[in-house]
TrEMBL record:
Record-given protein name: Membrane protein containing Cellulosome anchoring protein, cohesin region domain protein
SUPFAM superfamilies per UniProt: Carbohydrate-binding domain
Signal peptide span: 1-23
GO molecular function: carbohydrate binding
Keyword DNA-binding attached: no
Transmembrane domains' residue ranges: 172-191
Domain Cohesin: residue ranges: 44-86
GO BP annotations, alphabetical order: polysaccharide catabolic process
Matching NCBIfam families: PEP_CTERM (TIGR02595)
Keywords: Membrane, Signal, Transmembrane, Transmembrane helix
Keyword Mitochondrion: no
Length: 198
């Protein structure tokens, strides 16, 4: 019986090492390029903001390629510029087809592992009021093209096929517009009270 227990424990350990637990990739945005990750940002119509896109929790031996689509609300945001991070990704580029931006990049070994790996930068301009969500997807939504690939060929795309909600951009009205609206409402209420009293 003791021998069976030892064999069972050994088998469990071997199978456990053959299929290590892998944590999901973590994606973050740095609005305003201030080295702080945010998932919410406010813009007034006409204002712009530059956003750096990062990936963390990348296992060894590291990434040798990346690719994703960033989807936004075209009725509220407009892309000014977009580019991959050329320090980390020697090959690749950006394709912008409203309402999404596709970024792809590759590099030779060594791979990039760990946290805070910059993927690219996008500059948005606020064109209308409202809330726009920013979503990150696998570039071909689960198709045959491998985007996030580690040295040795392990593909991590299944983690983002269904999409990752990265942030909300709240496009707020310009304060002077609110002031004008507030003044109009106060005047309207004042006239209404005079009519009721008189």
């Amino acid at each position: 019986m003791k021998r069976l227990l030892v064999v069972a424990v050994a088998l469990f350990m071997v199978l456990g090492l053959a299929n290590p637990v892998r944590a999901d990739l973590v994606f973050n945005l740095d609005f305003g390029q201030d080295s702080n990750y945010e998932n919410y940002w406010e813009l007034n119509p006409g204002e712009t903001v530059s956003i750096d896109i990062y990936v963390s929790n990348v296992p060894d031996p590291g990434l040798i390629s990346m690719g994703f689509d960033l989807v936004y609300d075209q009725t509220q945001l407009e892309v000014v510029t977009a580019d991959i991070d050329s320090t980390n990704w020697y090959m690749g580029g950006v394709q912008h087809t409203t309402p999404e931006i596709e970024m792809k990049g590759g590099r030779v070994e060594p791979g990039l592992s760990g946290d805070n790996i910059k993927l690219g930068t996008i500059e948005f301009k606020c064109v209308a009021m409202g809330i726009s969500e920013l979503w990150l997807y696998d570039s071909d939504r689960g198709g045959n093209y491998d985007d996030f690939v580690l040295v040795g060929g392990t593909v991590l795309d299944e983690q983002i096929v269904s999409g990752v909600n990265l942030a909300e951009v709240n496009n707020v009205p310009i304060p002077s517009t609110l002031l004008l609206l507030g003044t109009g409402l106060i005047s309207f209420l004042g006239l209404s009270r005079r009519r009721i009293a008189g």
